[in-house]
């Protein structure tokens, strides 16, 4: 699978394709400047309790906690940003504000750069090997 996207939730042109990090990734399909908004993640609005229940025993899931009680499950979302892989030296960040999950560039991105974020705390609780390949890799998610 490789497809370009520029839907209503994308602010930058991106392409989803196989990633050297894990599975599929999202890649810049145009040059992006530091601080630019890359896109917005949408999904099913659920409770945090339901999000944590869904995460049990699954390795591939895209959950973002919006607050202490609300979360978004983007596992079945059509948004390209759901394919964003983790990196210990990310080039983008996730910002959660007013229920919106948005991605912003932490540096200038060239065409073909894989867009990555630091997942922070995950349901893996340090048991899933990190595959980012960065020199300062923490080795676990």
UniProtKB/TrEMBL annotation:
Domain SET, residue spans: 12-120
Localisation: Chromosome
Keyword Methyltransferase: yes
Domain of life: Bacteria
Annotated keywords: Chromosome, Methyltransferase, S-adenosyl-L-methionine, Transferase
InterPro entries assigned to the protein according to its UniProt record, in alphabetical order: SET2_Histone-Lys_MeTrsfase, SET_dom, SET_dom_sf
Coiled-coil regions listed in the entry: none
SMART domains in the record: SET (SM00317)
UniProt key word Transferase: yes
Entry-linked PANTHER family: SET DOMAIN PROTEINS (PTHR22884)
Protein name: SET domain-containing protein-lysine N-methyltransferase
